[in-house]
C-alpha cells in the first residue's frame, strides 16, 4: 500500500503539472513551439545560455575521439614493448577490445541516463575512462592493455548516446543541429590531439604510456564540471519534478521562456508515462521500425570503413611509403574542417542533404583509393591518389555521415523511449565497429587494398539511393520528430542495401 500511495501521488502531481502547463499554453495564443523559437513577440531564446552546458557535455565526445585515435601512432611501440609485434590479430584486439567494451556500455547507457539523469550518467561514464586509461598506461603485457582498453570502452559506449540526448534536450531548436555538430567537432579535436601527442612515440621509448595518461585530465574535468551544469528538463519532468524542470529552463533559456517551455514539454509528454515503458516496445512494438532505421544508418556509417582510417592510417600510409606523421595530421585536420562546415550547414540545408552528399563524396574517395592500388597509374600518382582519396573520404564523412545519424536519433524518438532507443542503435554501431577494427589489418594483409576498398564502397554507394527515398528532413521549424516516407516499403530495401544486394 505505501508503494501504491507514492505512485498515485506521483501520478496526481504529474497530471497536475501537465494540466497547469496546458492552461498556460492555451493562453499563449500567439506563441510558437518553445525550442523552435518560442513566441514571435519575444523572439528566440539566447543560444549563449545553453552553450556552456553543451561544451561541457562534448568533453565526452572529445574523449571518444581521443581514445579512437590514440592507438594510431602508438600501436607499433606498444606491440614492441608488450611483445606482440607482427601479430595482426593481437594488434586488432587492442583496438576491438575497446569497441567490445563500448558495445556493453551502450547497451546500459539508456538505462543509466533514464535512471540517474543525464548529468550523473556523464560522471559515471568518466569513471571507467579514468580507470581504464590508467590501467593501459601502466600495462606490463598484452592482457593488461586489453583490460584497460575494455574499461575505457565501457565509458566510450555510455558517453556518446548521453551526449546526443543531452544536447538535444537543452538546446533551442533553431541551433540544435549546430550544437549537435559540436559532438563531431569535439570528436575531431580529440582525434587530432591523440595524433599530435602520439608523434614522439616512435622516437621516445615508453612515450606511448604518456599518451594514455593524457586523457585522464579531461575525463576528470567532465566529472567535475558536470556537477555545475543543468540537468535535462525533459528528464526532470518525466520523473515528476516539474518545479526543478522550470528552474533548469530558466537557467538554459531565460525566465521569459519558461512558461512556453513547460507548456511545450507538457504537450509533447501528453499520454506518456515513464512507468509504462517496456524494453520490448523497441524490439517488437511500434518503435521497432524507427530503431531499425537508426541502427541501419549506423551500420552504413561503420561499413564505410571510416574508423579503420582513424585506427590504422599510420599502417596504411607506411605501406604506401608516405610519412605517417604529416599524413595523419592532415587526416585530423580534414575531419575537423568537415565538422565545422557541417556545423554551419546543418540547420540550413537539413540532415538529408548532408547525409546524401556525404555518402556520395565517400564513394568517390574510395574509388580514388581503389584506382591507386591498380596498375593503371604510376607509383608516384598512386601515392597522391591514395592519400588524396583518404583525405577526401574523411572530409566527406565529417560533413554528414559522422554527425547526422546521432542528431537524427535524438530527434526521431519520443522522450519516453529516447534514451533506451538511442542506446540500442549505438550498440549496433559498436558491434559493426568491433568487427571492422578486429579484421581490417588481417583483410588488408590477405586481400589487399583494391578489393578491401571495393568491399567498403559497395554498401556505401547503395545507401545513397535508399537514404534519398527513406528520410525526410527534420522540420526546420524545430519539430522533435521527422517523417519517414512510406516506411514499411523501405525497411526491406534498407536491409538489402546493408547486405549489399
Automatic annotation (TrEMBL):
Membrane-topology annotation of the record: Multi-pass membrane protein
Record-linked SUPFAM superfamilies: MFS general substrate transporter
Gene3D superfamilies in the record: MFS general substrate transporter like domains (1.20.1250.20)
GO molecular function: hexose transmembrane transporter activity
Signal peptide from the UniProt entry: none
Residues in Major facilitator superfamily (MFS) profile domain copies: 53-501
Subcellular location: Membrane
Keywords: Membrane, Transmembrane, Transmembrane helix, Transport
TM region positions: 50-69, 89-109, 145-167, 179-201, 290-314, 326-346, 353-371, 383-409, 421-440
One GO CC term on file: membrane
Main location group: membrane
Pfam family, one: Sugar_tr
Family of this protein: Belongs to the major facilitator superfamily. Sugar transporter (TC 2.A.1.1) family.
Name the record gives this protein: SUPPRESSOR OF G PROTEIN BETA1
